[in-house]
Amino acid sequence: MAWRLAYARASHVAAAAHPDEMTPSNSLAGNCNQCSWHVQCDDDSGERKAVHAAAREAFWAERDATTCWSVPMGRDEYMMPWLGLRESGLSEAIARARQRGRTVLLVDNSAHKVIDTFYQHRCAQVIEAKKMVMDVSTGARSHQAVMDEARAKLVNAMRYGHTMYFRLSNTACPFSNKFSSPTQLPLALFDQQVVADLFDRYCAEDSNLFGADHALAQVLLESDTEDGIFRPRRGFEVVLCTHFGLDDYEHFLARCLPMNKLQAIRPVSSNGGNHPTAGMEMDSLQVVDDEWRGRNYWTGEYLIQEMRVYDDDGEPSMDLVWVVLQKGPWKLQSGAFI
């Protein structure tokens, strides 16, 4: 079965990120500066992967050019059509940040604070940064008591393979000095490479973190061990979340955290691939052909095409195929994007 896509004029097509590799031999051809781009394929799975790979590369290239990555929180086939059934935009962004040796800083100033809710329903040891600051400043608890509690949560997170979740709220908690300690809450905890080193060196049966030459070993007491042995469990991770907005978080957190060790990620609403995201600036253009039918969406950043392929009998022969074009500018004029 063969299928074709026809596009209105665009400045650059994600599927043409490597036009030299897209030769007639593999059934991909086109010119990103011309009015149309065609994909002809006999093996839809292989060509779909090629299109998705190019779209993925274009998607992350744009985000790598920014300080804070904006990604769908869930599985959004409009923005990230390559995601698998059990994958989400947020999970891919977190994995990508960690591959680069960065600790995740989630930026969520949404009305319902969905990130906090998400992690509250997971196995997480939650550090309430705002409460730490308020308790010490008001005298509700001593600084020693606050730090002892943080140490206990860190030990439990390592022991049980839980998330160490720092709920920063709208507070600039000074972890860089006042609320960090080598023996209670090490600043090295915010270094993903230090956390990754735990799994490389101290998860095997013959290993022992207690007394080892590792930044996180200093928080352990003998009472935390089992016969003098402590091994962290895989699954342990560090995640921070701030309620400051995109324009504010760097200003407020710059002196409180090692920002050069963090990767800011801003989760946005996901549409699950069923409809445009709420608040999306959208024009639509219905496209009908004897072989495929679809709709073009203008999101303000992307031109996105939804389509379903039909066979000679008029029956659907391929499920939705998504192709995301890189950032505009485009505009809708006289029934076509130009």
Detailed description of the structure:
- The longest helix has 21 residues, at 44-64.
- The protein has helices at 44-64, 89-99, 114-120, 129-138, 143-160, 192-201, 249-253, and strands at 28-30, 37-39, 68-72, 103-107, 124-128, 163-169, 237-242, 262-268, 284-288, 292-298, 303-310, 316-324, 332-333, 336-337.
- It is α/β, with parallel strands linked by helices.
- Strands 3-8-4-7-6-5 form a six-stranded parallel beta sheet, with helices on both faces. The chain has a four-stranded antiparallel beta sheet with strand order 9-10-11-12. A two-stranded antiparallel ribbon has the order 1-2.
- It has seven helices and 14 strands.
- β10 (292-298) and β11 form a beta hairpin.
- The protein starts with 27 loop residues before the first strand and ends with a strand.
